[in-house]
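Researcher: Next sequence.
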Amino acid sequence: MEIVLSLAIGIVAGSGIYLILRPRTFQVIVGLSLLSYAVNLFIFCMGRLRVGTPPLIAPLSTSSAFYTDPVPQALVLTAIVIGFATTALFLVVLLVARGLNGNDHVDGHEPDNVG
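Model: Next structure:
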């Protein structure tokens, strides 16, 4: 299961990096979103996921093997909310830039056709 999860995180992160390097603004925004989702998934999986266990230490157990760490879950939840707000801001900037320039290239003008 760890191999599948690692491959999924790697594929999502690689796709995000590929899209960040594209010349269109919308592709850059989608790439940033994918990269943030990959980081969130990585942080969430590093929190020792346990099925059916409480997120806090039980009063009788002193071992950390019997609980799930709540900090990565809280960090990922906060990052998701901030990611939605950032994506909404990027989309508004995209629409304004497209209205001013007439295209959605990152540098603001269409490249010359190179044959």
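Model: The chain has one domain: 2-51+66-101. The mean pLDDT is 83.
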